[in-house]
C-alpha cells in the first residue's frame, strides 16, 4: 500500500495584508512539514485575501501577489503546497490555485465556475476558465502551464476544484475522475451560514465516493473583510469515508488538519465503480509531470476529533455563539479599535450584543490562553499584564444605560445587573432633560405644544435620537467601536430609529431575527456553551415583554403590540421576501399556518408588513455593516435588493382584502 499524509491548513487572512497573510502561510507550511505531511492545501485566494473586491483589478495587487508567491517557493522544500491568488493572463484576471512541489512552481489551475449569487460578486473581477483549454503564463521569463491541470507526482495524480467548481452541475471532478486522479484538492472561501457544515460534509463525502478519490477541502477562517465570516471548515474523505474534520470557528490564525490516505485502496475502490470509464488514451495536454515522489510512511493514528458541540442538540445556538464572537474579535483587532461600547437598554437586543462580547473574551481565553489571546490585541495599551476575563472585560466593553421618564426600574435593574455579571464597565446617563429641551425648542418653533395624540412618532423618535450623541461621545473617549443593536425583524419593517438605536460602526445582530435571539438568550440563561456555562442573570431580560419604552409607561407599549407577533412577522418576512410570495398567496398560506388568528387580523398584519417593508428600504440601506450568518438575510449590500421607491404592493394588498 502507498500511504500519503495530507493536510488542510485553514487561515485567518485579511485582504491586502501582505505581511500578515504571508506570515500565516509560512506558519501553515512549517506546521504541515513538522507534522509529517507531504501535501498541504491552503484556502482560495489566500495570498491576497478573498475579500479584496475592486482592488483585485489593481495591477499593483496582482504584481504583489505574484511576488509573494515567488517568496514562498523556497519554503516548500520536501513538500507539495497549493496556494490561491489572482492571476492576470491574456488580458483577463483569473482566480487560480498554484501547485508548488519541492521549491518548483508546477502550474496554475483556474477556477471554472464563478460564484455570482447572494453575497458573491466574483464575475465582477474574474473570468471563468474554459475547462478544455490549456495555456501558458510567463512569470519572470519562465513559462508555466495554466488550465484544468492534472499534476502527476511520480504516479500520484492530483487535480483541483476551486470552491464553486464543486457546487456546480458541470464540475471538474467528473473529468478528473475519468482521468484516474487520486486526490482532488478543493481550496475554498466558503462563507458561514447556519447548517452549511452538514451540507459540506455531504458534498465532500459523496464527491470522494462517487468519483473514487481522496477529497481534501479547506476553507478560510474568521472575519476576513468585515461582513462575511468563514468557519474554517476542513474535511478530508476517501471513497465515501470521512477521515478527518477540523475544528471550526477557531480563534487561532492557522489550524492544521491531517489524515493519512491509502492511495492504492482508493484506486481499488474507484476500479469497482460502474461509472468509472477511464480515458483510453493519455491526456497529455493537461498533464504535468512533477518530479516529486511521496515518501514512504508508516500507518499512524491521527486524532481530529469533532468537538462535542458539533454533535449536540443545540448546534444552531452554538454556531451563532461562536460565529458572532469570532466575528467581533476579528473586527476589533483588524480595525484596531480599543474596545466596544453598547447602549444597554435592559432589553433583549442590546443584552445579546453585550453577552456576545463577553463570549468572545471567554471563548478566546479558553482556546488560546491569556498570553496568546492578548498578543492579538497588543496594540491596546495595558492589556498585556492582564490574565482573566474579569480583568479584561471592563477594558474591552463599556455599557451605557440612558434613562428618560419613560424608562422603567425593571430595564435599569436588568441592564445594571447584566453589566455587573459579565464584568463590563457600566455608565448611567439621564437624558430626559435633553429630550425635554428638544421638545420645548421645537414646540416653540412650530407654535404649539407637542402631544402624544398628534405627535406620537416624533416624540418617540426624539428619545431614541438623543441617546446617540452621548454614547458616541463615550465611544470616542474610549477610542472604541460603537455597536448598533437592531435585529433583523426590526430591519424588515423599519421598527427602528435612524440616528437612534441604529447608531454604530457595526451592527452584529441585524442579520438575526428576534424570535431566535430570544430563544438564544433563554439558552444562554439555562445552558450556554460548555466552555463558559450559563448566565442566570439573563432571566431579568428574558421575563420581560420586548418594548422600546418610548411611550409613557401607562401606554404599556410592547414591540409586538406595535407590530404583530414576532413568530408571525418572521414567517411573513421569509415567505414574502425570501420566497417572493405576493399578498394574496401569502394570506392563503397564513390561514393554514396560523389558524388561531382571525382572517381579518391576518389581513391587517400582512398589509402592515408589506407597507412597512416598502417604506423602509432606505433604512436598510443605511444600516452599519452587519455579519452574514443566514443565507436569507435582508442586507441590500450583500443579499437582498429592493427599490427604495416603489408602488408598495398596493394593488396586491387590495386584491387580498377582497378575499374577506
Automatic annotation (TrEMBL):
The active site of this protein is located at: 44 (proton acceptor), 111 (for glutaminase activity), 163 (nucleophile)
Q: Which reaction does it catalyse?
A: deamido-NAD(+) + L-glutamine + ATP + H2O = L-glutamate + AMP + diphosphate + NAD(+) + H(+)
An example GO BP is: NAD+ biosynthetic process
Q: Which UniProt keywords apply?
A: ATP-binding, Ligase, NAD, Nucleotide-binding
Positions binding ATP in this chain are 485
Record pathway: Cofactor biosynthesis; NAD(+) biosynthesis; NAD(+) from deamido-NAD(+) (L-Gln route): step 1/1
User: Molecular function (GO) terms listed?
Assistant: ATP binding; glutaminase activity; NAD+ synthase (glutamine-hydrolyzing) activity; NAD+ synthase activity
Chain sites annotated for binding deamido-NAD(+): 461, 490, 619
Q: What is any Pfam family matched here?
A: NAD_synthase
Q: Where does L-glutamine bind?
A: 190, 196
Per its UniProt record, what InterPro entries does this chain match? C-N_Hydrolase, C-N_Hydrolase_sf, Gln-dep_NAD_synthase, NAD/GMP_synthase, NAD_synthase, Rossmann-like_a/b/a_fold
State its Enzyme Commission number(s): 6.3.5.1
User: Which top EC class is given?
Assistant: ligase
Residues annotated as domain CN hydrolase: 4-265
- Cellular component, GO, one term: cytoplasm
Q: What does this protein do?
A: Catalyzes the ATP-dependent amidation of deamido-NAD to form NAD. Uses L-glutamine as a nitrogen source.
Q: Which family does it belong to?
A: Belongs to the NAD synthetase family. In the C-terminal section; belongs to the NAD synthetase family.
Show the HAMAP family listed in the entry: NadE_glutamine_dep (MF_02090)
**By what name is this protein known?**
Glutamine-dependent NAD(+) synthetase
- Which species is this UniProt entry from? Gimesia alba
Tell me what gene encodes this.
nadE_2
Amino acid at each position: 500500500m502507498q500511504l500519503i499524509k495530507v493536510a488542510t491548513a485553514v487561515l485567518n487572512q485579511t485582504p491586502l495584508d501582505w505581511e500578515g497573510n504571508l506570515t500565516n502561510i509560512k506558519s501553515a507550511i512549517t506546521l504541515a512539514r513538522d507534522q509529517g505531511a507531504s501535501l498541504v492545501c491552503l484556502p482560495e485566494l489566500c495570498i491576497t485575501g478573498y475579500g479584496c473586491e475592486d482592488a483585485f483589478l489593481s495591477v499593483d495587487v496582482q504584481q504583489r501577489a505574484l511576488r509573494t508567491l515567488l517568496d514562498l517557493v523556497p519554503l516548500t522544500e520536501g513538500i507539495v503546497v497549493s496556494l490561491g491568488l489572482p492571476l492576470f493572463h491574456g488580458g483577463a484576471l483569473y482566480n487560480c490555485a498554484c501547485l508548488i512541489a519541492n521549491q518548483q512552481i508546477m502550474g496554475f489551475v483556474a477556477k471554472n465556475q464563478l460564484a455570482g449569487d447572494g453575497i458573491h460578486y466574483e464575475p465582477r473581477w474574474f473570468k471563468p476558465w474554459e475547462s478544455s483549454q490549456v495555456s501558458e503564463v510567463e512569470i519572470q521569463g519562465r513559462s508555466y502551464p495554466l488550465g484544468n491541470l492534472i499534476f502527476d507526482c511520480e504516479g500520484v495524480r492530483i487535480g483541483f476544484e476551486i470552491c464553486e467548481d464543486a457546487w456546480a452541475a458541470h464540475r471538474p471532478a467528473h473529468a478528473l475522475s475519468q482521468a484516474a486522479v487520486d486526490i482532488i484538492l478543493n481550496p475554498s472561501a466558503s462563507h458561514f451560514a447556519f447548517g452549511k457544515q452538514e451540507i459540506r460534509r455531504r458534498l465532500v463525502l459523496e464527491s470522494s465516493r462517487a468519483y473514487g478519490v481522496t477529497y481534501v477541502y479547506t476553507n478560510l477562517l474568521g472575519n476576513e473583510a468585515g461582513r462575511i465570516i468563514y468557519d474554517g471548515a476542513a474535511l478530508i474523505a476517501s471513497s465515501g469515508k470521512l477521515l478527518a474534520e477540523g475544528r471550526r470557528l477557531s480563534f487561532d490564525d492557522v489550524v492544521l488538519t491531517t489524515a493519512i490516505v491509502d492511495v492504492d485502496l482508493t484506486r481499488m475502490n474507484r476500479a469497482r465503480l460502474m461509472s468509472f470509464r477511464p480515458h483510453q488514451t493519455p491526456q497529455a495536454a493537461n498533464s504535468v509531470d512533477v518530479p516529486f515522489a511521496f515518501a514512504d510512511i508508516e500507518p499512524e493514528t491521527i486524532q481530529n476529533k469533532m468537538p462535542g458541540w458539533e454533535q449536540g442538540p443545540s448546534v444552531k445556538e452554538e454556531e451563532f455563539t461562536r460565529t458572532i464572537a469570532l466575528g467581533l474579535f476579528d473586527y476589533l483587532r483588524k480595525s484596531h479599535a480599543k474596545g466596544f461600547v453598547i447602549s444597554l437598554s435592559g432589553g433583549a437586543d442590546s443584552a445579546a450584543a453585550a453577552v456576545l462580547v463577553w463570549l468572545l473574551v471567554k471563548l478566546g481565553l479558553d482556546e488560546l490562553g491569556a498570553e496568546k489571546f492578548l498578543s492579538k490585541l497588543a496594540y491596546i495599551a495595558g492589556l498585556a499584564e492582564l490574565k482573566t476575563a474579569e480583568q479584561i472585560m471592563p477594558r474591552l466593553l463599556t455599557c451605557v444605560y440612558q434613562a428618560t421618564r419613560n424608562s422603567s426600574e425593571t430595564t435599569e435593574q436588568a441592564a445594571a445587573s447584566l453589566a455587573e455579571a459579565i464584568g463590563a464597565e457600566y455608565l448611567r446617563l439621564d437624558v430626559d432633560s435633553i429630550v425635554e429641551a428638544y421638545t420645548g425648542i421645537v414646540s416653540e418653533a412650530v407654535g404649539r405644544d407637542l402631544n402624544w395624540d398628534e405627535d406620537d412618532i416624533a416624540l418617540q423618535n426624539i428619545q431614541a435620537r438623543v441617546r446617540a450623541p452621548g454614547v458616541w461621545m463615550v465611544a470616542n473617549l474610549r477610542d472604541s467601536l460603537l455597536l448598533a443593536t437592531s435585529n433583523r425583524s426590526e430591519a424588515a419593517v423599519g421598527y427602528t430609529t435612524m440616528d437612534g438605536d441604529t447608531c454604530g460602526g457595526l451592527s452584529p445582530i441585524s442579520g438575526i431575527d428576534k424570535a431566535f435571539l430570544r430563544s438564544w438568550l433563554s439558552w444562554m440563561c439555562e445552558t450556554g456553551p460548555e466552555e463558559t456555562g450559563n448566565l442566570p442573570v439573563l432571566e431579568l431580560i428574558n421575563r420581560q415583554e420586548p418594548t422600546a419604552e418610548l411611550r409613557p409607561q401607562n401606554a404599556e407599549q410592547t414591540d409586538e403590540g406595535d407590530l404583530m407577533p414576532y413568530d408571525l412577522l418572521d414567517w411573513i418576512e421569509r415567505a414574502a421576501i425570501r420566497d417572493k410570495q405576493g399578498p394574496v398567496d401569502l394570506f392563503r398560506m397564513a390561514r393554514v399556518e396560523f389558524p388561531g388568528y382571525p382572517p381579518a387580523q391576518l389581513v391587517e398584519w400582512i398589509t402592515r408588513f408589506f407597507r412597512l417593508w416598502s417604506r423602509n428600504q432606505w433604512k436598510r440601506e443605511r444600516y452599519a455593516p452587519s455579519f452574514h450568518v443566514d443565507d436569507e438575510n435582508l442586507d441590500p449590500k450583500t443579499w437582498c435588493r429592493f427599490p427604495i421607491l416603489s408602488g408598495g404592493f398596493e394593488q396586491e394588498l387590495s386584491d387580498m382584502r377582497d378575499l374577506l
